[in-house]
Each structure stands twice: as structure tokens, then as C-alpha cells.
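Same chain as my last thread, 300 residues:
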Amino acid sequence: MKKVYNVTPGEINDFLAEFDHEDTTVYGVPNGGLMLAAYLTEAEVVFTVEDADIILDDLIDSGVTMERYKAEWPDKQFKAMFDKRDGQADANFQGQWIVFPWERSHPNGEKTIEDNIVRILQYIGEKPERDGLVGTPDRVVRMYSEIFRGYDPAHRPKVTIFKNGADGLDYNQMITDEGSFHSHCEHHMVPFFGKYYFAYIPSRKGNILGLSKVARIVDYHAAKLQIQERLGHDIVEDLWKALCTGADEPLGMALMMRAEHLCKTMRGVKKKGQATTTTLKGVFLTEPKVKQEFLNSCKI
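reply #2:
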């Protein structure tokens, strides 16, 4: 769950003081910018961009809204209280859920998110007040905190490693693991799920993975909005980096993932099937026989 930053009226007044003057006209971007504009005491709030000197918004997240206004009205100033883009002045607010006073119907800001779930239910034609849906917005918010925990670094599992040869055996043969996973498509926010097949060959002077940690790393990276190709890449890079800590690189690493994507099964073409992706490093990429041995071990 994101950390919540509660904006105070004092902070808002300090921000607005820069341009809250009688000779200034301000257009507030719906809805957050319009609410900020309501705090102005001297500047004139106008309801068309053409009549404004300044376009006001509450925050810049992706930057899409700002770019749209700048493209249409390049002569207007665009001001936002928070800028959450990478590398910007307010980068310390990245990863935080910013809650303004008018949104604060609950101390941690979650009631605001629940209100959005209610709106979605209304949009699809449901009645949020009916018995079966009472409490659903709260359940959805709590579920999101669980299934999207991969955005919170605090949930990242520690990868336990052991020195190869510490018990007298220098092992440099293939080690495999397999398991199930589930994630969510970033294009439609519906699940994709299936099995993974993992293998690596440690260096004699390198490290050995704690095998249960493979499954934990898979689950952690899967707990985000994803595409399957990037999911496989991130898992392998994370485990590879863990094995390289203070030691030689492993000889190779491989991951195959096979999953059914509900964005294909239940919408669009509505065809059942699975997508298979592989991520290969080291000898799994350069040695055909090693790659084939791995593929033969995958029960597909």
C-alpha cells in the first residue's frame, strides 16, 4: 500500500501566494485544479482557458494532462502543486498517495479510493447500495493492496544465498525449480496465470540460491501490472544479480513462463490458449545443448 501524504490548507495557501494577485486570472483544471482555485482570495477564477493567464492543476502525475493543455495553449503558464514525474523537483512524493483536504473523508485517504470503486460500479450499470455490493469497495481496495504488493519495496523478499562448496561439494550442474504464478495484464488489468520453469548453473566459486526464494521473487515481481515478457526479464535479472554478489557470475540462468491471459480468453478474440516466453542468460543462450536440456525438463 502506498504511503499517504495529507496536504494541509497552509501548504495550499503558501503555494497559491505566488500568483494570488488581483491582476491574475486562473483556470482550474477539473477536478483538482478547480478545487485549488477555490482557495484563491485575490486572483480571478475564470471558466474558460482562453481567458486565463494561468492553468492550475493539483498535481502532475504522468504529465499527459499538462502536455495536452500546453499543446493547445502554449502561451499559458501551467502550474501544479506537486510534480510526481521521475527526476522532477517534487520527486520525494513519488510512491506516495497525495490526499488534499477536500478528499479527506478518511484518515488514510482510502475512502476516496473506495468512492472511485463506487463510481465504476455505477458506470457498468450496477447499484452499489444493493445487498451483495455493500462493502465491495472496501474489499476491492484491500484486495488491491494484497495483489499489487509488488509496488511496495517493503514486500521484496530477501534472496538467501549459500557459498558453493561450503559443505565440501562444488556443484556446477543444472538446478531447476518450477511452480505456479499469477499476475495482471497492464493493458486491461485482468489476470494472466500459469506455470514457470526456472534453471541455473552455478559457478564452482560462486553462490547457490535458497530454492524457496525463487518462488518468492516470482510472486513479488508478478504482483504488479505486467506484460509477461518483462515479468520474466525482471525475475531473471533479480536472481542473477543476487548470485553475482561478491562472487563469480553463474554459468547460466533460464526461465520459461507459460500463461493463460484472460484479456484474450474473456474479451476481444475470446480464444482460450497460452502464451510462452523464455528469458535466457549465459550458457542457456550460447550453448544449444544446454538450452535443449532445459527445454526438455519443462513439462509442457
